[in-house]
Protein backbone atom coordinates (compact mmCIF):
# COMPACT_ATOMS: atom_id res chain seq x y z
CA UNK A 1 0.00 0.00 0.00
CA UNK A 2 1.44 3.33 -1.08
CA UNK A 3 1.16 5.98 1.65
CA UNK A 4 -0.41 9.25 0.63
CA UNK A 5 1.80 12.22 -0.03
CA UNK A 6 2.98 14.49 2.77
CA UNK A 7 2.89 18.23 2.76
CA UNK A 8 6.16 20.02 3.40
CA UNK A 9 4.94 21.30 6.79
CA UNK A 10 3.75 17.95 8.21
CA UNK A 11 4.47 16.94 11.77
CA UNK A 12 7.43 14.79 12.68
CA UNK A 13 5.34 11.71 13.48
CA UNK A 14 3.91 11.66 9.97
CA UNK A 15 7.33 12.15 8.41
CA UNK A 16 8.83 9.31 10.43
CA UNK A 17 5.89 7.05 9.63
CA UNK A 18 6.01 7.92 5.92
CA UNK A 19 9.78 7.52 5.41
CA UNK A 20 10.70 4.94 8.05
CA UNK A 21 10.71 1.98 5.65
CA UNK A 22 12.77 3.82 3.05
CA UNK A 23 15.41 4.96 5.57
CA UNK A 24 15.62 1.57 7.26
CA UNK A 25 15.88 -0.39 4.00
CA UNK A 26 18.60 1.91 2.72
CA UNK A 27 20.52 1.71 6.00
CA UNK A 28 20.22 -2.09 6.09
CA UNK A 29 21.26 -2.45 2.46
CA UNK A 30 24.38 -0.44 3.18
CA UNK A 31 25.35 -1.86 6.58
CA UNK A 32 24.22 -5.49 6.20
CA UNK A 33 23.24 -5.83 9.83
CA UNK A 34 20.23 -4.93 11.90
CA UNK A 35 21.98 -3.21 14.81
CA UNK A 36 23.84 -0.73 12.61
CA UNK A 37 20.69 -0.14 10.55
CA UNK A 38 18.80 0.57 13.78
CA UNK A 39 21.48 3.05 14.87
CA UNK A 40 21.42 4.82 11.52
CA UNK A 41 17.63 4.93 11.48
CA UNK A 42 17.66 6.57 14.89
CA UNK A 43 20.43 9.01 13.95
CA UNK A 44 18.70 10.12 10.73
CA UNK A 45 15.44 10.99 12.43
CA UNK A 46 17.22 12.51 15.42
CA UNK A 47 19.01 14.86 13.02
CA UNK A 48 15.70 15.58 11.34
CA UNK A 49 14.10 16.48 14.66
CA UNK A 50 17.04 18.57 15.89
CA UNK A 51 17.57 20.51 12.66
CA UNK A 52 13.90 20.68 11.64
CA UNK A 53 14.89 21.67 8.09
CA UNK A 54 12.53 23.46 5.74
CA UNK A 55 11.82 21.75 2.43
CA UNK A 56 10.48 23.16 -0.80
CA UNK A 57 8.87 19.88 -1.84
CA UNK A 58 8.47 16.23 -0.83
CA UNK A 59 11.19 15.26 -3.28
CA UNK A 60 13.52 17.65 -1.47
CA UNK A 61 12.66 16.06 1.90
CA UNK A 62 13.14 12.54 0.49
CA UNK A 63 16.50 13.48 -1.02
CA UNK A 64 17.58 15.04 2.29
CA UNK A 65 16.68 11.88 4.22
CA UNK A 66 18.50 9.67 1.70
CA UNK A 67 21.57 11.93 1.80
CA UNK A 68 21.66 11.90 5.61
CA UNK A 69 21.24 8.11 5.64
CA UNK A 70 24.16 7.71 3.21
CA UNK A 71 26.26 10.13 5.29
CA UNK A 72 25.51 8.21 8.48
CA UNK A 73 26.57 4.92 6.86
CA UNK A 74 29.81 6.51 5.69
CA UNK A 75 30.43 7.86 9.19
CA UNK A 76 30.08 4.36 10.65
CA UNK A 77 32.32 2.84 7.96
CA UNK A 78 34.98 5.46 8.65
CA UNK A 79 34.96 5.00 12.42
CA UNK A 80 37.91 3.15 13.88
CA UNK A 81 35.54 1.05 15.95
CA UNK A 82 33.79 -0.19 12.83
CA UNK A 83 37.06 -1.10 11.13
CA UNK A 84 37.97 -3.39 14.01
CA UNK A 85 34.71 -5.31 14.13
CA UNK A 86 33.22 -8.09 12.04
CA UNK A 87 29.51 -7.87 11.24
CA UNK A 88 27.10 -10.60 12.24
CA UNK A 89 24.95 -12.01 9.50
CA UNK A 90 21.52 -10.51 9.97
CA UNK A 91 18.81 -11.13 7.48
CA UNK A 92 15.52 -9.50 6.79
CA UNK A 93 12.84 -12.01 5.95
CA UNK A 94 10.81 -11.00 2.92
CA UNK A 95 7.42 -12.39 2.04
CA UNK A 96 8.65 -13.98 -1.18
CA UNK A 97 11.60 -16.37 -1.19
CA UNK A 98 12.89 -14.73 -4.40
CA UNK A 99 13.22 -11.43 -2.53
CA UNK A 100 15.26 -13.16 0.19
CA UNK A 101 17.55 -14.70 -2.40
CA UNK A 102 18.00 -11.40 -4.23
CA UNK A 103 18.65 -9.53 -0.98
CA UNK A 104 21.29 -12.10 -0.06
CA UNK A 105 22.99 -11.73 -3.44
CA UNK A 106 22.85 -7.91 -3.27
CA UNK A 107 24.77 -8.03 -0.01
CA UNK A 108 27.73 -9.49 -1.91
CA UNK A 109 28.11 -6.31 -3.98
CA UNK A 110 30.64 -3.64 -2.97
CA UNK A 111 29.22 -0.75 -0.89
CA UNK A 112 29.22 1.81 -3.69
CA UNK A 113 27.29 -0.52 -5.97
CA UNK A 114 24.71 -1.44 -3.32
CA UNK A 115 23.81 2.23 -2.88
CA UNK A 116 23.10 2.92 -6.56
CA UNK A 117 21.23 -0.37 -7.01
CA UNK A 118 19.08 0.33 -3.96
CA UNK A 119 18.30 3.91 -4.93
CA UNK A 120 17.58 3.03 -8.57
CA UNK A 121 15.48 -0.10 -8.12
CA UNK A 122 13.99 0.15 -4.63
CA UNK A 123 13.46 3.92 -4.38
CA UNK A 124 12.71 4.46 -8.10
CA UNK A 125 15.08 7.41 -8.38
CA UNK A 126 16.48 8.50 -11.73
CA UNK A 127 20.19 8.60 -12.45
CA UNK A 128 20.09 12.40 -12.21
CA UNK A 129 18.42 12.26 -8.78
CA UNK A 130 20.89 9.64 -7.55
CA UNK A 131 23.82 11.73 -8.77
CA UNK A 132 22.50 14.76 -6.88
CA UNK A 133 21.97 12.77 -3.68
CA UNK A 134 25.34 11.00 -3.81
CA UNK A 135 27.09 14.14 -5.09
CA UNK A 136 28.56 12.33 -8.06
CA UNK A 137 28.41 12.94 -11.80
CA UNK A 138 25.53 11.25 -13.63
CA UNK A 139 28.06 9.42 -15.78
CA UNK A 140 29.69 8.00 -12.64
CA UNK A 141 26.34 6.80 -11.32
CA UNK A 142 25.50 5.28 -14.70
CA UNK A 143 28.86 3.48 -14.77
CA UNK A 144 28.42 2.20 -11.21
CA UNK A 145 24.93 0.98 -12.05
CA UNK A 146 26.20 -0.85 -15.14
CA UNK A 147 29.08 -2.41 -13.20
CA UNK A 148 26.75 -3.37 -10.36
CA UNK A 149 24.38 -5.12 -12.78
CA UNK A 150 27.32 -6.92 -14.41
CA UNK A 151 28.73 -7.95 -11.02
CA UNK A 152 25.31 -9.12 -9.83
CA UNK A 153 24.90 -11.13 -13.01
CA UNK A 154 28.26 -12.83 -12.36
CA UNK A 155 27.28 -13.56 -8.75
CA UNK A 156 23.94 -15.03 -9.76
CA UNK A 157 25.56 -17.09 -12.54
CA UNK A 158 28.15 -18.50 -10.11
CA UNK A 159 25.50 -19.44 -7.58
CA UNK A 160 23.25 -21.21 -10.08
CA UNK A 161 26.06 -22.96 -11.99
CA UNK A 162 27.16 -24.85 -8.88
Would you tell me the structural class of the helices and strands? mainly alpha
DSSP summary, beta strand count: 0
Summed up, the helix count is 8
Average residue-wise pLDDT: 82
Output the helix-strand order. Answer: HHHHHHHH
Percent range for helical residues? over 70%
Low-confidence stretches: 1-5
The N- and C-terminal alpha carbons lie at a distance of 38 Å
Task: Provide the gyration radius in Å.
Answer: 16 Å
- Tell me the fraction of residues in β-strands, as a range: under 5%
List keywords for this structure.
single chain, 162 residues, mainly alpha, 8 helices, 0% strand, globular, DNA binding, transcription, RNA_pol_sigma_r2
What does this structure look like?
The chain is mainly α and 162 residues long. The protein has eight helices and no strands. Helix 1 (12-31) runs antiparallel to helix 2. It is globular and about 50 Å long. The relative contact order is 0.11. Residues 1-5 have low confidence and may be disordered. One of its GO terms (molecular function) is DNA binding. This is Sigma-70 family RNA polymerase sigma factor. It comes from Vallitalea guaymasensis.
Record the SSE blueprint.
Blueprint: H1 12-31, H2 34-51, H3 58-78, H4 80-83, H5 97-106, H6 111-122, H7 127-134, H8 138-161
Helix pairs in contact: 1-2, 1-3, 1-6, 2-3, 3-7, 6-8, 7-8
